[in-house]
């Protein structure tokens, strides 16, 4: 097997792997419907709809905790 | 002063809005000139043969493509980033002196880069790689501009109040990363002054001149991996970022399915990078790579339509808004054109179709139904939505906007229909042969047949340019109007009659 053939097989394996990951992600999104912190994914649309500087964030990030 | 409530700061967004409009006018004007040069060759020497060097098709063509891509579109991307970024992260640029400084530096260095590009391309200084024509000193400047853009993005993310990143931000990040990678790899070049010829000469050519580090087929492969993905990360990803923000916001409708938007994002990232090989079908690149380019191009329909359908479904039950608002019309037609060109592209990437389509005007038609109908419409819609919020004035004229919409839609339709007919006619004529394999037509036969379609394309392009001038005028009048709006509208943008 020369390098070209090897890279073609490697490429194929990578494709299969990525396809599995992508479908796994689809399965995860539609069965769990919520992310790890319990937010329904659909709530995130509100980030655009309520985007005044004073609006309450969907998931607030407390700045004090950071430093 | 101190007690003034915190507000979003649109200083940098405004600067880039200005360049979006100016470079849009320049780029499209050159496009119209090119179109008429193809239809009426005498236009090539319109300023006399002494100046023909600067007015001929080949000198102007890269100026057109680079002005509309790196001028108009990129400015639009930057303008919307400096607007959308703050809003969905719920943090103002006014809160960080450093980010403000970076934003302004980003703008001014960009202007320096644009000036250098315009001068050098007019002077005929070019690397001759499509969409990568700039010589190495300019490439370095562009890299600096890009790094500043990245610092802006990640800087703003760093001080955000909203923990999760809205889907548009993902797309902006992907734009940044994608273009950074593509640009660096494709522009690996060696200044000729560093080279030594076999005869022992050194310091060859002008100091700014360079040659690609790759040779032959490799150069072609890297070039079209770049070229096609410049379409991906310049004309698709950031424009999707825009529509995911501006359409829900302007219509007041939550995205139909946020989950679908996440999926389409990863799908697009996964598939797009492999599709570039479709530019090199029937060339010297390995056959499996060409097949891969075709297959991935066809698969690309799925994530593209995922986003486009998601946008159309966002309008579910709210279609009266499309009738009522020219601003929504632009976006809905934009996502329709997106669906349309992401179906057309994969069709052209099928090998047997490509055998007819390659090198013909059908490709140019495909490019322009995407860029005029999708990229152009979406950027203008974004600026229209931003204008009342940035200038705190109501949009000068709704009827002017509606007129612009219809004029430009007609322009786009004339452009792509004429190029379809021209392209397929051309492709068929080039292949036609008699029973002994002699070609049935010579090149000039096709030129004669295509003339009327070239003229129609010129008219279509002119209509689009007229519409763009109406847009510029409308924004200018909005900016300078005295009809202030005191409270920002949550959704629908305020428009004067
Ligand atoms: C007023 C509207 C426009 C007109 C009349 C126009 C006209 C043209 C013409 C005549 C060409 C050369 C075609 C050839 O070589 O046969 C061209 C190429 C191109 N234009 Fe435009 N253009 C317009 C707007 C735009 C916009 C807004 C964009 C992008 C945002 C764009 C992107 C391109 C690209 C990427 C190419 C190269 C296509 C290829 O190599 O296949 N154009 N345009």
Describe this structure in words.
The complex is a heterodimer of chains A (67) and B (497). Helices cover 57% and strands 0% of the residues of chain A. Chain A is an all-alpha fold and 67 residues long. Chain A has a domain of 32 residues. Chain A is elongated and about 60 Å long. Chain B has a domain of 139 residues. Helices cover 71% and strands 1% of the residues of chain B. Chain B starts with 10 loop residues before the first helix and ends in a 17-residue tail after the last helix. Classes of the chains: A mainly alpha (67), B mainly alpha (497). The interface between A and B is medium-sized, with 30 and 37 residues. Protoporphyrin IX containing FE binds next to helix 1, helix 3, helix 14 and helix 16 of chain B.
* Total DSSP helices of chain A: 3
Query: Which structural class do the helices and strands of chain B define?
Result: mainly alpha
Helical residue percent band of chain B: over 70%
- Radius of gyration of chain B over alpha carbons? 23 Å
Given the structure, what is the number of helices of chain B? Answer: 16
Number of strands of chain B: 2
Biggest sheet record of chain A: none
Number of strands of chain A: 0
Beta-strand percentage range of chain A: under 5%
Principal-axis shape of chain B equals globular
Write the layout of secondary structure elements.
The complex is a heterodimer of chains A (67) and B (497).
Chain A: H1 3-32, H2 46-49, H3 63-66
Chain B: H1 11-39, H2 52-55, H3 57-89, H4 97-122, H5 136-158, H6 167-186, E1 189-191, E2 210-212, H7 216-251, H8 258-272, H9 287-299, H10 301-314, H11 320-324, H12 326-349, H13 351-357, H14 361-391, H15 398-431, H16 443-480
Antiparallel strand pairs in B: 1-2
Bound molecules: protoporphyrin IX containing FE.
